[in-house]
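Ticket #4471: structure export looks truncated?
Reporter: QA, pipeline team
Priority: medium

Steps to reproduce: submit the single chain below to the structure queue and open the exported record.
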Amino acid sequence: MIAGLRVVRDWITTLPTLVAFGLTLVVFDLAGRIALLFGRRPFEWTMAALQWTLLRVFSLSGVRYDVEGTEHLPPGRSALVVSNHQSMLDIPMFGGVLLRNFPKYVAKQELGRGIPAVSLNLRRGGNALIDRGDRAQAVAEIRRVAAESRERGTVVVLFPEGTRSRTGELRRFRRAGAEAMFDAAPDLPVIPAAIDGTWKVFERNMLPIPFGTRVRVRFGPPIPREGRSTGEVLADARAWIEATLAGWRGATADPPMTDGRTSHG
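Actual output as written to the record:
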């Protein structure tokens, strides 16, 4: 009986969320096209507003956000963020939290069309749209977006799992994208980020959205890069993310220290 009432509650709050979600995408698609007439930065501010608004939209379904560690990403300073990936909500999560960092993403080409505002942002916002079947094109795009980040003081977000984890479990990291990104920006700090709970919002493709879902994101301190390989840096990032997720979920693991050693408290 209680479970049935929860489903009814989820649908009652999901319906206005879906309406607001659709309207937000349509309105900001138009706003983004107008902003493009005035240049790239106005467009980026418009897309930042889009992502912030989308977080507020999901709040209609009781989604709660806990954010930690943004001090590691001061506005105007370039950085490479390495994060796990759970759902499409991850993108507005980073964009809505890091408003003045104007995050750029590495995404598959298919997302560059068909979704109002979101596809427009991916195509025109300086992101890397990659063809998974064309390694040379993918590497070139990742190098480009990393190099532009150095020049413009923006943040690049890379999801090394390569695809969403629909159950929230951490998947294997792929090195190719990270190698291209790290090589193109050897002097930029690598910031690990852990995100959890967004997979629950999309578990049933928002039909319905579980009411009261808690979404967490934490940014860690920079991982040392000097004299270290991509594999070592990426392994540290993964270990930090894995330990952070375990800590949130009640395990006893502590996030590793940033020099590659494990913290034992």
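Status: closed, not a bug. The export was complete when the record was re-opened. Leaving a note from the reviewer for reference: Residues 52 and 96 are 4 Å apart (CA to CA).
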